[in-house]
Write a structure and sequence with these properties.
The chain is an alpha/beta fold. It has one domain: Rossmann fold, CATH 3.40.50.300. The chain is 28% helix and 29% strand. β1 and β2 form a beta hairpin. The longest helix is centred in the C-terminal third of the chain and has 18 residues. It is globular, with a radius of gyration of 19 Å.
Length: 266
């Protein structure tokens, strides 16, 4: 078993996991598991016909962003199910507790000039009591804090997770990273009295960017919540131009076209 240490960069940390990739493009979905030593570089961006079309909206350059997003909350609130639904469009009734941390990658053609790669870090529910969360949280730019609406005790723990998050990771200006509250398992009976107006006020008082009722089982608001978080991450990213030096640009030239349909790991 590989051990994550504080000396590792986030990409080195990610190397101990199997990268699960879905590439969304106009022709459909391509999915698979790619064991990578460092980081998967996605080469296939769009269909050849679209890139060769003089009227295509794709420019000569496309900016690529790599964003690390945490998914945190108490044990059994559905964090892994949310990630599987978002990345693979799958749901399983069989519960298996996450040990330590798991990792998945979602690739989005955000717009005609922007490729967004989300590293989704699935942090085990018991990790808040350990000493590794500072390592796991390092360089994250956004987070989902999840609770189970059918178990009131998991909502009571939300502020502890938010406090732990805010104490260990922040934006370049010292502000908290955007955190979206997910009231998961909305397909089940509620245990507690949180209504929408109360959750609105709760989020304002405690620094959450927003909240969504979600269901991984019924695929309710998973994509919407993710898009909302990415919009906020991108807005913050544009506010810190000094961070642009960390981004990669990929040239959509003939060499890229010849590599259509392939992915490379290095």
């Amino acid at each position: 078993m590989w051990l994550i240490t504080a000396k590792m960069t986030p990409l080195m940390q990610a190397a101990v996991f199997t990268v699960q990739v879905i590439i969304l493009n106009h022709s459909g979905q391509i999915s698979g598991d790619y064991p990578c030593e460092l980081e998967c570089h996605i080469v296939h961006i769009s269909r050849r016909s679209e890139l060769n079309d003089p009227g295509s909206t794709w420019g000569d350059w496309t900016r690529e962003h790599l964003f690390k997003v945490l998914v945190i909350g108490e044990l059994g609130v559905g964090k892994t199910s949310i990630i599987k639904r978002y990345v693979h469009q799958l749901f399983s009734q069989h519960y298996r507790a996450t040990i330590g941390v798991d990792f998945a990658l979602k690739v989005l053609n955000w717009d005609s000039r922007t490729l967004v790669r989300l590293q989704l870090w699935d942090i085990a529910g018991q990790e808040r009591f350990g000493n590794m969360t500072r390592v796991y949280y390092k360089e994250a730019v956004g987070a989902f804090v999840v609770f189970d609406i059918s178990r009131g005790s998991t909502f009571e723990a939300v502020l502890k997770w938010k406090s732990d998050l805010d104490s260990k990771v922040h934006l370049p200006n010292g502000s908290p990273i955007p955190a979206v509250l997910l009231a998961n398992k909305c397909d089940q009976k509620k245990d507690g009295g949180q209504n929408p107006s109360q959750l609105d006020q709760f989020c304002k008082e405690h620094g959450f960017t927003g909240w969504f009722e979600t269901s991984a089982k019924d695929n309710i608001n998973i994509d919407e919540a993710a898009r909302f978080l990415v919009e906020n991450i991108l807005a913050n990213h544009q506010s810190f131009p000094g961070e642009e030096n960390n981004e990669d640009k990929i040239k959509l030239d003939q060499e890229t076209l010849r590599a259509e349909g392939k992915s490379q790991c290095c």
